[in-house]
Amino acid sequence: MKKSDFFYDLPEKLIAQTPTKERDRSRLLVLSKDTGKIEDKSFYNILDYLKAGDCLVLNNTRVLPARLYGKAEDTGATVEFVLLKQRGLNLWETIAGPGKKAKPGRRFVFSPLLSATVTKVLEDGNRILLFEPKGEFFSVLDKVGQMPLPPYIKQKCEDKERYQTVYSKELGSAAAPTAGLHFTKELLKKAEEKGVKIAYVTLHIGLGTFRPVKVDNIEDHHMHTEHYYVPKETADIINETKKSGGRVICVGTTGCRTVESVMRDFGEMRECSGDTDIFIYPGFEFKCMDALITNFHLPESTLIMLVSAFAGYDNTMKAYAHAVKEEYRFFSFGDACFIY
Question: What pLDDT tens digit does each residue of the chain (340 aa) get?
Fold first, then answer.
């Protein structure tokens, strides 16, 4: 298939710049992949579609306030850094912009609490920084850093917690698992009271999730790598759900990529961790996921390709056309879609 097959026209006004006031008051498009039927609901109506014996798979990664603005001690130049991956004690791989001003040996000051020196420039242009925090690094980062919101969100996020899920726990992501932003603790409790099991995986989302597909033939696209962990308790819950005829419902494409990576690599759900570069597009055979809760994704992105693989290409493009017509809110802070 061609990249252009996944294009749709989206008015800029439909790109959500801020989250809804209440998490579960966003809209919910419900799509049956078997019949193509579309329903317009509110997110709290998700309870009507969950059944006793189902399992919700939630990604409990927590977003780092990974965007930092520093001034070079020698030139006074301001450079933006985004933390990508920890390489050692206070040592981080980062994206720098403008990169030419972040030369090896140059020291940057971010605040009275934090400074860093560029130690190396990698082949892809990323910089390795050695940080000098006055205190524990992550505590300092929480005070100094900003949320690395996607480039299509122009407004500053006033409440950092609105770009975190209510169940976020494991620090390490450069972006939020946005399908989970719609859940409240009360909604999850009601789901459990209904007999729905909750299972947690961790997949740390990298900025590669926003990287555009540049090749015309999508099969030639190479996915970025992200680290995941599946605990034994989660593997047991998923295995029991499948055995008893319940549905495994992934909250977000990251949960989907995690469970399908494990099934691809091991042929069963088990406790494991590793790096995955799984690319899911039409023709993919799902071995674990039975239903998906997800947001609306960018045209020609790997994420809309994943949705198309699960819901069917025609169903997906029809649902997106409906969402545009009905003026749903799109992308990270936008509305949700339940596909079953």
Answer: 999 999 999 999 999 999 999 999 999 999 999 999 999 999 999 999 999 999 999 999 999 999 999 999 999 999 999 998 889 999 999 999 999 999 999 999 999 999 999 999 999 899 999 999 999 999 999 999 999 898 899 988 888 899 999 999 999 998 999 999 999 999 999 999 999 999 999 999 987 777 789 999 999 999 989 999 999 999 999 999 999 999 999 999 999 999 999 999 999 999 999 999 999 999 999 999 999 999 999 999 999 999 999 999 999 999 999 999 999 999 999 999 999 9
Assigned CATH class of 3-63+159-339: alpha beta
Sorted by where each begins, the domain ranges of the chain are 3-63+159-339, 67-144
Per-residue H/E/C for the chain: CEHHHHCCCCCHHHECCCCCCCHHHCEEEEECCCCCCEEEEEHHHHHHHCCCCCEEEEECEEECCCEEEEEECCCCCEEEEEEEEEEECCEEEEEEECHHHCCCCCEEEEECCEEEEEEEECCCCCEEEEEEECCCHHHHHHHHCECCCCCCCCCCCCCHHHHCCCCCCEEEECCCCHHHHHCCHHHHHHHHHCCCEEEEEEECCCHHHHCCCCCCEHHHCCCCCEEEEECHHHHHHHHHHHHCCCCEEEECHHHHHHHHHHHHHHCCCCCEEEEECCCCCCCCCCCCCCEEEEECCCCCCHHHHHHHHHHCHHHHHHHHHHHHHCCCCECCCCCEEEEC
Question: Domain spanning 67-144: which superfamily?
Answer: QueA-like (2.40.10.240)
